[in-house]
Amino acid sequence: MKVLISPISTAEAVVAWECGTNIIDIKNINEGSLGASFPWIIREVISRINDPKVVFSATLGDLPHKPGTASLAALGAVSSGVKYVKAGLHGSKDVAEGVELMSAVVRTCKDFDPSVTVVTAGYADYQRFGGLSPQQLVEIAAESKSDMVMVDTYIKDGKSLFDALNEQQLTEFVQQAHAKGLKVALAGSVRAEHLELLARIGADVVGVRGAVCSGYDRGTTIDPVKAEQFIKAANAIAVAQ
């Protein structure tokens, strides 16, 4: 189980790197759960860290159903140097629309660099705003030939992934995705005390920001002590498995 940390600046990215995170996911929290950062920030982070062992990731935003817009956003991300591209399916209303949007993102990314990992991302708290269910996300990811499927939480009001979906539901989500050859990332106000459960569920990647920020508040800055403790805890669980 790999750890993905989401910094919003080069300084935060350096902290995450120094603490040993596997994936640095550059985002902009001012634009939502999966808010897109700026190309110049992405390029600056990659240039500053310049470590071939680190995987750089970028989010495309909580996207409306506009496949062309998503395609251009994806091209901006991959041309900036990232190897993971996460697209948040916020505006797509059903599986057909989700497949249309994600197929455009996948084609854009793979045409530019076949090694890029494309992530179909949605929301565990989908029922709170009428979004796509985890089962629909798996179907969309598989049909669009994405590499990974992810759920995060859209509404950041203190409720976590586990307030939206219980262990059985998450386990079924992971099993369905794995059965279709997809990797799975789980996020959404998760903390270190959730790591054993996330490992038991079978997550391939766990994504965090608030858990490694001062006061567990994603609006503050990444705390190197919290980040190091989180990664050590995740590594200990990985070794135990």
Automatic annotation (TrEMBL):
<keyword id="KW-0456">Lyase</keyword>
<protein>
    <recommendedName>
        <fullName>(5-formylfuran-3-yl)methyl phosphate synthase</fullName>
        <ecNumber>4.2.3.153</ecNumber>
    </recommendedName>
</protein>
<dbReference type="GO" id="GO:0016829">
    <property type="term" value="F:lyase activity"/>
</dbReference>
<dbReference type="Pfam" id="PF04476">
    <property type="entry name" value="4HFCP_synth"/>
</dbReference>
<keyword id="KW-0704">Schiff base</keyword>
<dbReference type="InterPro" id="IPR007565">
    <property type="entry name" value="4HFCP_synth"/>
</dbReference>
<dbReference type="InterPro" id="IPR011060">
    <property type="entry name" value="RibuloseP-bd_barrel"/>
</dbReference>
<comment type="function">
    <text>Catalyzes the formation of 4-(hydroxymethyl)-2-furancarboxaldehyde phosphate (4-HFC-P) from two molecules of glyceraldehyde-3-P (GA-3-P).</text>
</comment>
